[in-house]
Write a structure and sequence with these properties.
With 403 residues, this protein is α/β, with parallel strands linked by helices. The chain has 16 helices and 14 strands. The strands form two sheets. The chain has an eight-stranded mixed β-sheet with strand order 3-4-2-1-5-6-7-8, sandwiched between helices. It has a six-stranded parallel β-sheet with strand order 11-10-9-12-13-14, with helices on both faces. The longest helix has 26 residues. It is globular, with a radius of gyration of 22 Å.
Length: 403
């Protein structure tokens, strides 16, 4: 099979996403074209600090080749056409008009790549790119158009403005909707009966506890136990007050927070507490070294519309390293991880669960966590996706024969 991925996430950066990981996994046995997000006018003019975006802009200015072969079966398209920044438009009917023009610019480059690669028949997988790829089903005419729903982006103002109307429409017209959480699957079924849960995956080759992971320098002098979190320190996703109370109630040890901070985190009281250590964002390839030396890993999520149904991939990564995990009790945590993690609903419960995790941890529990994490390989997720494709393709063939 031939696949075309469109996504919000660039491939080959310092972080992976569902789409980048799935694309790489599928390319082991299928041909894959991964389309990096096009640069918009605002990003071009503002010259964003993200080094990967800067590299893309510099490549466009140097008129470098847009289509690159990464591996035997994986090609990357870096679109050179600049699309217009239109989210400021006040009315969705106006947004639709200009958004279709943006879609045509992107589609023209994809079509040329498809011609070069001789992808006569192909499947489009759209990873949450609800605007720039909204019309690609009509413009590219793939054999299947799949919408990958793996995060609740409508909780953010940028996506909420026009996405409240457009995303349900996109889900409805997709041939298949695949989701990484049970909550997202239930929601998608409201608009499209061909909606499936395929789970989520982690890079288990990278998060391998059998490798030798020396203790990072930043952790050497910190008082144990080390209570650690790795990921974006985003105030819309994490509970700052919970972290403040947790740090204040810890009898001993250090709360270690690794990742980029948003403005509210930077301004919070957390920076005034003596038993909290902030560490800058680390490349995904060395993150396991930090997780390996945490005594307890945490995911102190805020409970809101953004987080309640999402699938926190970091939980799999924590478990893969055999570490005890304490997390906020959300729907996915209850449905998928309740037998292998300590769940809490209040700051007091969070502190109690950490103490319990420290007391109960042993080699047998560690082994059971690692074994369970093995269920969340990208090979398994890709297999689930292919099963959905085969099922819907069979339905379509039966329908075509009947009519």
């Amino acid at each position: 099979m031939n696949f075309v991925f469109v996504s919000l996430q660039q491939i080959n950066t310092d972080r992976e996403s569902t789409s980048t990981s799935l694309a790489k996994e599928l390319s082991k046995n299928h041909r894959v074209l991964y389309v990096n997000p096009p640069i918009d006018r605002k990003t071009l003019l503002l010259k964003r600090k993200d080094k990967f975006i800067r590299e893309r802009i510099d490549a466009i200015k140097r008129k470098e080749k847009a289509l690159i072969q990464e591996t035997e079966n994986l090609w990357i398209l870096n679109p050179v056409n600049i699309i217009e920044s239109i989210n400021w438009l006040p009315f969705t009917f106006l947004f639709r008009i200009f958004n279709r023009l943006n879609n045509k610019r992107l589609a023209s480059e994809i079509k040329e790549s498809l011609r070069i690669l001789q992808f006569d028949s192909f499947i489009v997988v759209n990873d949450k790119d609800m605007f720039r790829s909204f019309y690609l089903k009509e413009l590219l005419k793939p054999s299947l158009y799949i919408y990958l729903d793996r995060d609740y982006t409508l909780g953010f103002d940028y996506w909420k403005k026009h996405g409240k109307i457009l995303e349900p429409e996109l889900i409805k017209k997709a041939d298949v909707v695949v989701c990484n959480s049970l909550d997202f699957t239930k929601n998608a079924k409201r608009y499209n009966k061909n909606s499936y849960y395929i789970g989520n995956g982690a890079d288990l080759d990278n998060f391998n506890p059998e490798k030798v992971w020396p203790k990072p320098d930043e952790l050497q002098m910190l008082e144990r136990p080390l209570i650690g979190y790795v990921g974006a320190l985003n105030s819309q996703r994490l509970d700052i007050l919970l972290l403040e109370e947790l740090a204040s109630s810890l009898k001993k040890g250090t709360l270690v927070l690794i990742g980029p901070e948003d403005d509210l985190f930077k301004q919070s009281k957390l920076h005034q507490l003596p038993n909290i250590c902030f560490i800058e964002k680390k490349h995904m390839h060395i993150v396991p070294a930090y997780v390996k030396h945490f005594d307890v890993c945490i995911n102190p999520q805020a409970v809101n519309e953004i987080t309640i149904g999402n699938f926190p991939l970091k939980i799999v990564e924590y478990l893969a390293m055999g570490r005890p995990v304490v997390a906020t009790s959300t729907n996915t945590m209850q449905e998928v991880f309740s037998s292998y993690c300590y769940l809490a609903k209040t700051p007091r419960e969070f502190t109690e669960r950490i103490e319990k995790a420290l007391e109960e941890d042993n080699p047998e529990l560690s082994q059971s966590r690692m074994k369970y994490a093995g269920n969340f390989s990208w090979e398994n997720v890709a297999g689930n996706l292919l099963h959905c494709i085969n099922e819907i393709s069979t339905k379509k063939r039966s329908f075509d024969r009947f009519y």
